Amino acid sequence: MRYPKYLSIGGTIGFPAPSFGCASEPYSTAFDHALEKLESMGFRTLPGPNARADKGIGISNTPECCAREFMDMYLSQETDCLISCGGGELMCEILPYMDFGKLAQADPKWFMGYSDNTNLTLLLATLADTASVYGPCAASFYMEPLHASLNDAIEILTGERKSVGSYGMWEKESLKDAEHPLVPYNLTEKLAMQCFIGREPTESARFRGRLLGGCLDILVCHAGTRFDRVKEFVEKYKEDGIIWFLEACDLNVFSIRRAMWQLEEAGWFQHVKGFLIGRPENGEPMMNLDNLNAVLEVTGRKNVPVVLDADLGHRPPMMPLVVGSVAEVTYEGSEQLTVEMEFS
Predict the structure, then answer these.
(1) Distance from CA of residue 328 to its chain's centroid?
(2) Cα of 290 vs its chain's centroid, Å
(3) SS (H, E, C) 28-48
(4) Bridge partners, 190 (sequence order)
(5) Is 207 in contact with 273 (CB distance < 8 Å)?
(6) Residue 93 has what pLDDT?
(7) How many whole angstroms separate alpha carbon 77 and alpha carbon 132?
(8) How far is 95 from 50, CA to CA, in rounded Å?
(9) What pLDDT, on a 0 to 100 scale, did the predictor assign at position 344?
(10) Strand 12-15 with 81-83, pairing
(11) Where are the beta strands (DSSP E) in the chain?
(12) Strand, coil or helix: 227
């Protein structure tokens, strides 16, 4: 696994938009303030040509233009790391225009994003053997002061941090909208994780493996395509084993259960050492199926630790995780989770 050089003070952060750009509110104003915030921290900023574009369907521009922007910015000597402008819907359509062979030969560079950006954070690992960060997108860095999770993300990029942990409170309903683009997280809910080994609840667990995962909505789209090299990746790193971190956006509980079944049948969960499951955006119970049993039907057969409702994904805050790193996860009760990462 290849790990990029750390971002240094004075280094340049590039902002491609392989998914949505920051063309409309509240993202446009938030992006402006994020650039100012990052510059005040001593970094240079370089928005890509699609950063404020709104010319595509579900992405900032045409798939060809989005792929070209990312390739150009990743290979450019002008940028030291990349943070995606945002999530979106159809980033998968850029993949036929990407050259992962060229990315695998280039000097590695940090790329950070989440949600639709799973299309790149997953494939940088499985196709280019290059680590990336599953973490906040550019427009999140507008807050003053930054939430601890956002500071953690920057400190991973700069090499000041390799360990992240749970944050205690989370946001169920955002107050951010077009008229209020700069409000901080609305942290009203107390963290209440659960942990199981197989199907048996446990108060503590410790497990170790190589991190792989992302947004389940996107992962399930990859299974069985020509871009699916997950089984080969899992086999390559079987001595480490895999910790899957998973979170869902649009999927309801039945969709989550079907997606978990599909990935298991595709062989993705071989050599699994544990699961970190984030709070689902759309996880309301349906027909006697809740979020817990949507996941445990598959994970429960693996007899490995499964942490549910962790700080991951679309209901902030989110722990930034380095995809491809070797992690030691420690669960010490419903409010305490730590992920210590090794870049080896």
Answers:
(1) 18
(2) 23
(3) HHHHHHHHHHHHHCCCEEEEC
(4) 169
(5) yes
(6) 98
(7) 18
(8) 17
(9) 78
(10) parallel
(11) 12-15, 44-47, 81-83, 110-113, 132-134, 163-165, 169-171, 187-190, 194-197, 200-201, 205-215, 242-247, 272-278, 305-310, 321-323, 326-331, 337-342
(12) coil
Sign of the CA dihedral running 51, 93, 79, 135: positive
Q: Find, among 227, 218, 293, the residue nearest to 262 by Cα.
A: 218
DSSP strand pairing (132-134 vs 81-83): unpaired
The residue count for the chain: 344
The structure tokens listed for 50 are: 């699609």
* SS3 assignment, position 200: strand
How far is residue 88 from each of residues 17, 70, 92, 145, measured CA to CA in Å? 10, 15, 10, 26
Amino acid identity, residue 90?
Answer: L
Q: Which residue has the tokens 């949505």?
A: 20
Q: What is the pLDDT of residue 282?
A: 87
- Whole-model pTM above 0.85? yes
Torsion of the alpha carbons at 311, 313, 318 and 319, rounded to the nearest 10: 80
Distance of alpha carbon 33 from alpha carbon 290, whole angstroms? 39
User: What tokens does 33 get?
Assistant: 């303030």
183 by Cβ neighbours in 10 Å (0-12 / 13-18 / 19+) ranks as middle
| Exposed / middle / buried, residue 179 (Cβ in 10 Å: 0-12, 13-18, 19+) | exposed
The end-to-end CA distance of the chain, in Å, is 7
Residue with tokens 């510059």: 39
pLDDT along the chain (344 residues), means of 10: 97 98 94 97 97 95 98 98 97 98 97 98 98 97 94 98 97 92 94 96 98 98 97 98 97 97 97 97 90 94 97 96 98 96 91
Residue 210: what pLDDT?
Answer: 98
d(CA 20, CA 27): 10
Q: Give the Cα separation of 168 and 315 in Å (integer).
A: 13
Q: How far is CA 327 from the centre of its chain?
A: 15
131 backbone dihedrals φ, ψ, rounded to 5° = -75, 150
Q: Please give the radius of gyration of the chain, using alpha carbons only, rounded to the nearest integer.
A: 19
